[in-house]
Amino acid sequence: MPVSEKAQSSRPEPAAATRATVMQLFATAVARTQCPFADQVNGPLAGLLAERAGHGAKEFGYKRETAGEFTQWGGLDGIRLSRWVCAVARKYTESLTGMSLAEAFGRSLEREAEQGLAEARTVAVGVTRSWASLYRSGDRHEPHFHPNTALSAVYYVAAPGTCEIDLLDPRQNVDYYDPGISLAGESHRVRLACAPGELLVFPGWLKHAVPPFQDETPRMSIAWNLNYTLG
Ligand SMILES: [Fe+2]
To answer: What is the CATH number of the domain that holds 113?
Structure first.
């Protein structure tokens, strides 16, 4: 006879016998925040992005990306925004690790037998690469992640409505078998609808995608690949 909870015993197990500690493991931290000076920088940056996207930009067919480092061509507004993004990313890391960036990085270096190096030098969140993306009607960006990047950051500059981004379940093999009940959104995409002025920060390994965009007014965003740097 097949064994099941029902057939195994005529009497149900007492509650104490089935009590267990349940751990929610492998959560993915995604930070979302509003830029406090968005009203001051979004207008000028939108004009600059439109200009940069008009010549010398990378045309991928599914979207257009600016060439060169945003931190180099973005002017004072670009530098101000990039510094704020790095500060938010530092806070994100420190709140998740529960320690200062220097201490967290020092512990990583200790594992590589370079004890004391982090204490002797300044640890910061730095920009490895930054660029702007323009989506026009019909554009999209299929699921991808940013290699060799500790943290990905994306900031929304201008759009006719909300800026949608899909975050994909990073747990490998969750779509291998469907038992009939989902315990924690297995294999789902989480779609966020952000407004211009909002910033997202998440691990560089997290796959994300931009669903098909449909509007005559372009959607503009800026992306940063961030890493921990020793000064
Ligand atoms: Fe991306």
So the answer is: 2.60.120.620
